[in-house]
Design a protein that fits this description.
Radius of gyration: 21 Å
Order of helices and strands: EEEEEEE
Largest sheet: 5 strands, antiparallel
Structural class: mainly beta
Strand order of the largest sheet: 1-4-3-2-5
Distance between the termini: 31 Å
Strand content: 25-35%
């Protein structure tokens, strides 16, 4: 287990269970899985660590693709539909794949 403290604010999208990486030259290097987050001290506790970032490293994270699907997320969606044809057209159905992103 390692604790990483950064100067400044943590990204508000960072969550427990996210996979943390750091940038080494052009390639991302796996650090481990986020175990806990403290926004007051700007620190991240990582478990299952593979490597440790160096001071000043650029940190990035990835969400679990099993949980974060490709559906539309958020509280609302706004769409505009238009018919560029000069003749009348019938609209029979509009479908959307949505998932609740927060409560």
């Amino acid at each position: 287990m390692i604790i990483i403290t950064i100067s400044g604010q943590l990204n508000s999208s960072l969550g427990i269970g996210d996979v943390l990486y750091y940038q080494d030259n052009a390639d991302p290097v796996l650090v481990g899985t986020v175990y806990s987050i403290s926004h007051t001290s700007s620190s991240i506790t990582v478990v299952d660590e593979v490597s440790s970032p160096t001071d000043g490293s650029f940190l990035l994270f990835a969400k679990d693709s099993k949980v974060n699907t490709s559906d539309v997320k958020g509280y609302y969606a706004k769409i505009t539909m238009s018919n560029g044809d000069t003749e009348k057209a019938n609209l029979f159905a509009v479908n959307a794949g949505v998932s609740e992103s927060s409560k």
